[in-house]
Amino acid sequence: MTQLELDEAKARELEEKFDPEMRFRPLGSLAGRIVGGALVALSLFHYYTAGFGLLSEMLHRGIHLAFVLGLVFLVFPATPRGYEAPPASRFMTPLGIPLLDWVLFAAALAAVLHVPLIPLDDLAFRVGNPTSTDVALGAILIVLLIEANRRTIGWPLPLIAISFMAYALFGPQMPGIFVHPGATVSQLVNHLYLTSQGIYGVALGVVATYVFHFVLFGVFATRIGLGQLFLDCAAWVAGRYAGGPAKVSIFGSALFGMISGSSVANTVTVGSLTIPMMVRLGYKKHFAAAVESTASTGGQITPPILGAAAFLMIEFLNLPYTTIILASIIPAFMHFFGVFMQVHFEAKRDGLRGLRPDEMPDLKAAFKRDWPTVIPLIGLIYMLFAGYTPYLAAFTGITLAVLVGLFNPMRRMRPIEIVEGLRDGAKYALAVGVASACVGIVVGVVTLTGVGFKISFIVTSFAADMAQASAAVLPAWVMGLQTLTLLFTLILTAIVCVLMGCGIPTTATYIIMVTVAAPALGLLGVEPIVAHFFVFYYGVLADITPPVAIAAYAAAGMAGADPFKTGNTAFRLALGKALVPFVFVFSPSILLVAKGFNWPDFATAFAGCVIGITFLSAAFSAYLLVPARLWERLVLAVASILLIAPEIWSSIAGLVLAAPVILAQLARRRAASMAA
Fold first, then answer.
1. CA nearest 4: which of 263, 242, 276?
2. Comparing C-alpha atoms, which of 275, 344, 242 is closest to residue 620?
3. How far apart, in Å, are the Cα atoms of 293 and each of 157, 305, 472, 559, 564?
4. Amino acid 21: pLDDT
5. Which of 58, 557, 506, 54 lies closest to 297 in space, CA to CA?
6. CB 380 within 8 A of CB 399
7. Are 277 and 354 in contact (CB under 8 A)?
8. Distance between CA 529 and CA 236 in Å, rounded?
9. 8 Å CB contact between 555 and 292
10. pLDDT in tens, 81-139
11. Is pTM beyond 0.70 here?
């Protein structure tokens, strides 16, 4: 095995070790076959309906949730002790699984399928007039969802859902603006259980209709060797230059993100190769881990999948898929560019070498071996841009991936590996499936009580007060009151997004923030697609922001580095991505498809971002052309903010401010070269 050869079995083992959503209960032989059969059946159900026609909306979502929720109780144990060897099969542990979990499995099936199996005419009559059975089963489903999410992703999302339900029930006791008439338990359960605005709402629908299929596609694309080809291409493009493995990490994660929307999956798959190489070439362990985790979060903002956000945006914004993808191109580039520049400056400062020729892959041999693996991705992208539905595109991609796996003589996939792919694809989708249903509880409470608009009013009012205080000390020509109000609203929204995203899957964070925070931006005239991208980007940032930087901690575990130090470094590396969302709010042209797009505005914003991110990277890395002094770093940091601000005059001011630093750096580099 060469140093750049991907061991997929090892990658899956690392993923289960470091990602709580992928950590599963060990099962005995018979239990493993039963659960595995159910997982394969779930994948086949989605594969068949994607290609040959979806069921009615409620029935399709119900079957999906019944499988997902029921299987969670068989696959994820209730306590950490459940990750030990399975107990012997006894009365209280049939097939090595606790009897309680079998009961919860059966209860999940009954509670979930009750609503989809009600005739539509009868269901329409019962909305607002639930029977006692409806209320009982609805309450059971809510409790099961809370417990399922606790098992898969921990307490953050369940606590948010519980808090929102408490708000709905105790409305008259709420303080100030948050007072509302309140709802009875029956009314709350009715809204969350029997309508399409709660558990069976858009969030569950998108996962059941789109996200599951792309998770499955990513599994098969990786197993037929597409991930290996991406890594070989990345090594060939960037490996020979200073700090080569770190740059391979960035390019590899960018390419790998096209087929995997999971930050942790990207981190452990690409990082299993790049982190040891970075450490061997001289990078500090925490920096190597931070580079990989930061680059890997880009998988959630990389077209064509964007994690799952692209499909959620299609539903929320009612925009074509191509519009969402075009809008995502430049921001994704800015993220990877920002990480690349910091890595480059660190490598130049510390004199780190690139890969030697004997450490580089043979790209010609790689393409000769793996070129067929590109066919499924090309087919999927073609179907998406040709206007076909995303699930039919995923069906095409999965089908082509299986065919390539069966008939590619250089990397043939055995039938048992296809079954394992179907099993693992379903297993990887369990956590996001129950999270989307739990998010439906939050969305349902928002639509029932109107609390989203109250939160938006509070945020904008507080931002307006901060703006007035700032306007009293700032000259009017620097920034007007309206712009200051928007700026402070963005800052507050960004902070809430990052905090809300701690420990919650990005898909769930995005839906909550769109429901709760995005309306605040709408009140200030921000275009919907811009507001959605803003909250989405900051939700993704939570994966590398302490104290719950799940991707950074996974990378730290692989590198043997300090987790908190890794998280702090990863956040620093991602500051380019943290600043870019402010750019596309103040200059929407950078999203390419926003209203009022024009090329001069785009060129100004793009050039300012590129130069500004370069200067900011130099300031943090203490290197531009030669090692930077403290005053140079401070000047570059201020100049970068002026350049990133999407105004021609601020950009000119930033360049003028940075000019002395550039001249001083040039002079020192010239002196150093003459001395040599």
1. 276
2. 344
3. 23, 19, 42, 11, 13
4. 67
5. 506
6. no
7. no
8. 36
9. yes
10. 888 888 888 888 999 999 999 999 999 999 999 999 988 778 888 888 899 999 999 99
11. yes
